Amino acid sequence: MLRISKSWCAVLCFCFSLVAANKDDYKIFNVSLNGDSSISLHWLIDYPKTKLAFEIHLPSEFGWFAFGFSNYGEAFPADYCLLWRNLDGKLHLIDTWTNDEGVVDLDHHQDCSNFRYKTTSSGITKYTFKRKFDTCDNRDYIIEDGTTHIVWSRGLQRIVSPKGLNISTSDRQNSGMIRASLLKNLHANTNLPSHVQTLELLADKVKVPAEETTYWCRVFKLPDKFKKKHHIYQYEANIQASSQGLVHHMELFHCESNAKEEIPLYNGDCFDNKRPKKTEVCKRVLAAWAMGAQPFTYPEEAALPLGGETFNQYVMLEIHYNNPELKSGIIDSSGVRFHISDKLRQMDAGVIELGLEYTDKMAIPPGQESFPLTGYCISSCTSVGFPQEGITIFGSQLHTHLIGVKVYTRHFDALGRELPELNRDNHYSTHFQEIRRLKKPVKVLPGHVLITRCDYSTMNRKNMTFGGFSISDEMCVNYIHYYPRAPLEVCKSSISEQALKTFFNYMKEWEDQPTSESKGVSENYYSIQWNKMRVQLLDEVYHEAPLSMQCNMSSGNRFPGYWENAPVPAVSLPLPPPSRDCHFDDQK
Ligand SMILES: *[C@@H]1O[C@H](CO)[C@@H](O)[C@H](O)[C@H]1NC(C)=O
Ligand SMILES: *[C@@H]1O[C@H](CO)[C@@H](O)[C@H](O)[C@H]1NC(C)=O
Ligand SMILES: *[C@@H]1O[C@H](CO)[C@@H](O)[C@H](O)[C@H]1NC(C)=O
Ligand SMILES: *[C@@H]1O[C@H](CO)[C@@H](O)[C@H](O)[C@H]1NC(C)=O
């Protein structure tokens, strides 16, 4: 066993032998695993070796502690590194997996390596281990960019052996799940210049209800100095210590209206029917934070404009409180801290919405394990919308509502040759919508094509799900953050009206479904009795039928052009799937 000094990171620093190339490479991230932060996770990323080093702190009273990963946060089946106390009191770490019933089995390949631990005099156990992103063991979870669902559980009884242990429990004190993006961008956080000032937009002593989910909305009028244009250089969460683990995500919206329009200073539940209608214009995302996210820093070339003569001075903070333990009596004043300056950077950053139009023309049949919808940003739109020298995308926020499980955006040049993907989340969750800095900024030229696809799971739905605004409707959007700001703001598609009519007509003529010319779009979708073949046909139609494009400017108007019945962009040369550095033949 190593000798370990007092500093908490001593263990992690010891077991992680990086060459001191850059201070950033040693960055240690952390997230609390339970509500009161008594169990926490700290990690370092070694990109050259494609390894993570984890350190976990927890109270020492336990017989076993399982820490691992699952696809969408289910406790089992899952991949666990299991810490357990032998009958003689020694701790061991073992690579395990749990079957569909929550029963533990041992992996043939042991991939929770370099285990070390210590127990502090204050009764905290700290342990570390390393884990490859991809261990090449089919029993192990592959850690990828985007969302990772971290699951844990513990038992207070000592066990004789981990094999056969049943980790299934409904006890919220002894199990949990959090989402984190583990493979963070190490080089995104640049230092701020000294002329930067802070602007805090915080909740005002909110009595957090003893309910699992609360969305709290507070409208602010910006201080007078924002009649002059400022730049946001960076923003971060300001979470009260007593609300750690409770504040799940926050968004700041700009109230998109003319500069003179007064918006009521609403402060209450977002879904309360007393919320004034006028606050509905507060929906243009300025900032988004989700649990585990680091400060979001704009790249040196650009920053996000806030304020100015034509800028409506109202913004709205939305906080999602997640209170599964139904605690009562918590008062919260968390919010977002902005680092701003009236010294403007060279360029304004902007946001473009890629993906699907919000329309019931796009729909997802019920009972599907995974059904895709795809939104196109076509060549003729980027040709008119982007400056000649193109734009540089440095950040991306993927967005769906409740049933989105995977989202990605592919990038093609004007000849249909695929370039590296813009962003991808294979374990997407609507509850973890960070704006992420891309590890490599992406240059997109006029004429290029961006294709955003979302996969939805409707196993729990009995009826059709439609594209739309309501939380029970779906969206498929990638908000890309880029510079220099261009006139293009919306580049989204849906199936052309004509093609959809043809589909409904086909359903009537050949499949004997009660669709009809006189019925509306959603009514027609409802009319269809969905079976495997019809679902597959809809999928094919969506991927081949001509498009109706929304190629809009920030003024809300379309770019001049003809945007109906555009062909689906042709892919001439797709990229091969990413290769894994594995030698599967030497495994059982
Ligand atoms: C966790 O990270 C935050 C910064 O993101 C830092 O302020 C805090 O001190 C860290 N906590 C621990 C226990 O290291
Ligand atoms: C595991 O434990 C849960 C609850 O504690 C129980 O319902 C389940 O039947 C057990 N499974 C097996 C395979 O023993
Ligand atoms: C689906 O919803 C529509 C509209 O509310 C309703 O008419 C229809 O009966 C529903 N279908 C099923 C299978 O529940
Ligand atoms: C795009 O512009 C058209 C025409 O002005 C408008 O009807 C539509 O709502 C706009 N779409 C978005 C998403 O702004």
UniProtKB/TrEMBL annotation:
Statement: the UniProt record of this protein carries the keyword Transmembrane: yes
Pfam families recorded: Cu2_monoox_C, Cu2_monooxygen, DOMON
Gene3D superfamilies, alphabetized: 2.60.120.230, Copper type II, ascorbate-dependent monooxygenase, N-terminal domain (2.60.120.310)
Range of residues in the leader sequence: 1-21
Protein localization: Membrane
UniProt cofactor(s): Cu(2+)
Membrane association type: Single-pass membrane protein
Span of domain DOMON: 37-155
Keywords on record: Copper, Disulfide bond, Glycoprotein, Membrane, Metal-binding, Monooxygenase, Oxidoreductase, Signal, Transmembrane, Transmembrane helix
Molecular function GO terms recorded: copper ion binding; dopamine beta-monooxygenase activity
Keyword Oxidoreductase: yes
Chief location category: membrane
Family: Belongs to the copper type II ascorbate-dependent monooxygenase family.
Protein name, per record: DOMON domain-containing protein
Source organism: Ceutorhynchus assimilis
